[in-house]
Description:
By secondary structure, the protein is an all-alpha fold. The chain contains four helices and no strands.
Amino acid sequence: MKKSAALIILSAAFMLCGLTQAADAKRGEALYQANCTRCHDTSVHTRPNSIIHSLDALKKRVRFCETNARLKWSDEQIEDVTAWLNQTFYKFK
Ligand code: HEC
Protein backbone atom coordinates (compact mmCIF):
# COMPACT_ATOMS: atom_id res chain seq x y z
CA MET A 1 0.00 0.00 0.00
CA LYS A 2 2.74 2.43 1.02
CA LYS A 3 4.69 1.53 -2.09
CA SER A 4 1.85 2.31 -4.46
CA ALA A 5 1.24 5.67 -2.76
CA ALA A 6 4.87 6.55 -3.34
CA LEU A 7 4.52 5.52 -6.97
CA ILE A 8 1.50 7.77 -7.43
CA ILE A 9 3.36 10.72 -5.92
CA LEU A 10 6.36 9.99 -8.09
CA SER A 11 4.35 9.84 -11.32
CA ALA A 12 2.49 13.02 -10.34
CA ALA A 13 5.85 14.71 -9.94
CA PHE A 14 6.92 13.52 -13.38
CA MET A 15 3.70 14.82 -14.89
CA LEU A 16 4.34 18.23 -13.32
CA CYS A 17 7.83 18.22 -14.82
CA GLY A 18 6.28 17.49 -18.18
CA LEU A 19 3.99 20.48 -17.87
CA THR A 20 6.79 22.90 -17.12
CA GLN A 21 9.16 21.44 -19.70
CA ALA A 22 10.52 23.83 -22.31
CA ALA A 23 9.14 23.55 -25.82
CA ASP A 24 10.60 20.63 -27.72
CA ALA A 25 11.71 21.74 -31.20
CA LYS A 26 12.52 18.18 -32.30
CA ARG A 27 8.98 17.08 -31.59
CA GLY A 28 7.80 20.26 -33.32
CA GLU A 29 9.68 19.34 -36.48
CA ALA A 30 8.08 15.90 -36.57
CA LEU A 31 4.63 17.41 -36.04
CA TYR A 32 5.23 19.92 -38.82
CA GLN A 33 6.48 17.33 -41.30
CA ALA A 34 3.53 15.05 -40.57
CA ASN A 35 0.74 17.66 -40.57
CA CYS A 36 1.71 20.99 -42.08
CA THR A 37 3.06 20.33 -45.55
CA ARG A 38 -0.28 19.76 -47.24
CA CYS A 39 -0.75 23.42 -48.27
CA HIS A 40 2.81 24.74 -48.22
CA ASP A 41 6.35 23.53 -47.69
CA THR A 42 8.97 25.22 -45.52
CA SER A 43 9.89 27.67 -48.31
CA VAL A 44 6.95 29.79 -47.12
CA HIS A 45 8.97 30.52 -43.94
CA THR A 46 11.93 31.99 -45.80
CA ARG A 47 10.08 34.00 -48.43
CA PRO A 48 11.19 37.64 -48.59
CA ASN A 49 7.64 38.96 -48.08
CA SER A 50 6.97 36.87 -44.95
CA ILE A 51 3.84 37.96 -43.08
CA ILE A 52 5.42 37.05 -39.71
CA HIS A 53 7.34 39.76 -37.84
CA SER A 54 7.44 38.61 -34.23
CA LEU A 55 7.48 35.45 -32.11
CA ASP A 56 3.96 36.25 -30.97
CA ALA A 57 2.74 36.58 -34.56
CA LEU A 58 4.45 33.29 -35.39
CA LYS A 59 2.67 31.47 -32.58
CA LYS A 60 -0.68 32.98 -33.60
CA ARG A 61 -0.08 31.92 -37.19
CA VAL A 62 0.77 28.35 -36.14
CA ARG A 63 -2.52 28.23 -34.20
CA PHE A 64 -4.38 29.77 -37.16
CA CYS A 65 -3.05 27.23 -39.67
CA GLU A 66 -3.52 24.40 -37.16
CA THR A 67 -7.18 25.38 -36.69
CA ASN A 68 -7.71 25.56 -40.45
CA ALA A 69 -6.18 22.12 -40.81
CA ARG A 70 -8.52 20.83 -38.01
CA LEU A 71 -5.68 19.20 -36.11
CA LYS A 72 -6.89 19.91 -32.54
CA TRP A 73 -3.38 20.45 -31.15
CA SER A 74 -2.69 21.17 -27.49
CA ASP A 75 -0.92 24.35 -26.40
CA GLU A 76 2.20 22.23 -25.93
CA GLN A 77 2.13 21.05 -29.54
CA ILE A 78 1.68 24.66 -30.73
CA GLU A 79 4.69 25.65 -28.57
CA ASP A 80 6.81 22.80 -29.97
CA VAL A 81 6.13 23.69 -33.61
CA THR A 82 6.55 27.41 -32.93
CA ALA A 83 9.91 26.70 -31.28
CA TRP A 84 11.10 24.59 -34.20
CA LEU A 85 10.01 27.15 -36.81
CA ASN A 86 11.62 29.97 -34.86
CA GLN A 87 14.91 28.16 -34.25
CA THR A 88 15.13 26.97 -37.84
CA PHE A 89 13.78 29.89 -39.88
CA TYR A 90 12.59 33.04 -38.11
CA LYS A 91 15.11 33.41 -35.27
CA PHE A 92 13.12 35.95 -33.24
CA LYS A 93 14.51 36.71 -29.76
C1 HEC B 1 -5.22 24.45 -45.15
C2 HEC B 1 -3.93 24.83 -45.73
C3 HEC B 1 -2.79 25.04 -44.75
C4 HEC B 1 -2.28 24.13 -43.85
C5 HEC B 1 -2.71 22.68 -43.62
C6 HEC B 1 -1.22 24.80 -43.14
N1 HEC B 1 -1.07 26.08 -43.61
FE1 HEC B 1 0.31 27.45 -42.97
N2 HEC B 1 -0.29 28.74 -44.40
C7 HEC B 1 -1.32 28.52 -45.31
C8 HEC B 1 -1.37 29.62 -46.26
C9 HEC B 1 -2.36 29.74 -47.40
C10 HEC B 1 -0.33 30.51 -45.88
C11 HEC B 1 0.07 31.81 -46.56
C12 HEC B 1 -0.83 32.93 -46.14
C13 HEC B 1 -0.49 34.20 -46.88
O1 HEC B 1 0.32 34.19 -47.79
O2 HEC B 1 -1.06 35.22 -46.47
C14 HEC B 1 0.32 29.94 -44.72
C15 HEC B 1 1.37 30.53 -44.05
C16 HEC B 1 1.96 30.03 -42.91
C17 HEC B 1 2.95 30.72 -42.12
C18 HEC B 1 3.52 32.12 -42.37
C19 HEC B 1 4.63 32.07 -43.40
C20 HEC B 1 5.35 33.40 -43.51
O3 HEC B 1 6.43 33.55 -42.89
O4 HEC B 1 4.85 34.30 -44.19
C21 HEC B 1 3.27 29.90 -41.07
C22 HEC B 1 4.26 30.17 -39.95
C23 HEC B 1 2.48 28.69 -41.23
N3 HEC B 1 1.70 28.79 -42.34
C24 HEC B 1 2.52 27.62 -40.37
C25 HEC B 1 1.80 26.45 -40.56
C26 HEC B 1 1.85 25.32 -39.64
C27 HEC B 1 2.69 25.24 -38.39
C28 HEC B 1 1.00 24.38 -40.13
C29 HEC B 1 0.66 23.02 -39.52
C30 HEC B 1 -0.10 23.12 -38.29
C31 HEC B 1 0.42 24.90 -41.35
N4 HEC B 1 0.93 26.16 -41.56
C32 HEC B 1 -0.51 24.22 -42.13
C33 HEC B 1 -2.15 27.42 -45.34
C34 HEC B 1 -2.01 26.26 -44.59
